[in-house]
Amino acid sequence: MKKNPKLKMISILTFLIFIYSGICAFSYAKNVSLDISESVFRLHVIANSDSKEDQDLKYKVRDSLLEYMNSICKDCSSKEEAISLVEKNKENFKKIAEDTIKSEGYSYTVNINIGNFEFPTKTYGDISLPAGFYDALRVEIGEAKGQNWWCVMFPPLCFVDISSGIVPDQSKETMKENLSNEEYALISDDSNTQIQFKFKLLEFFTNSGFITAKK
User: What is the pTM assigned to this prediction?
Assistant: First the structure.
């Protein structure tokens, strides 16, 4: 290396380009993650345990909450409006969960919080949200030590009939209005190789802990 200044210069330039590319990739992933998380409000229901009975109960609580949620949030035009409505009706959400639990013959307590929580990558029909930190309504049943279930309250990507797997066009339009064209392409079902690579890049930085909670 000492006898070959040209090789040394090439090595230095290669290293600097690598560092620069890494910084650019991180900056891109961080900005996109922030934009997507700021456009989404999620619902998170955690079961008491992983027993079949507790998991079945979780889904019954979920269905009751979704039915109520859809009745009060269906006309929301912004994430802030959705969060405000949920804040105002927080006790109603809690009572609905408690009543459902009681009607099924259980006496579990319910703890409800609105905050910023970490989520893994999740697909809703043909929309995939990358792992990251999102504002959400979290509903904890009993000891909340079981598997959890989550969906998107705004834009409304939650379904009472989860098996349908179809995201309403209106929900997609709302998502498009809050994201850039590239960001929307990133989370939609896109076979573009470059878009898929960028999604994996975003997952890598998030799962590696480089991108942390925004709040």
Answer: 0.71
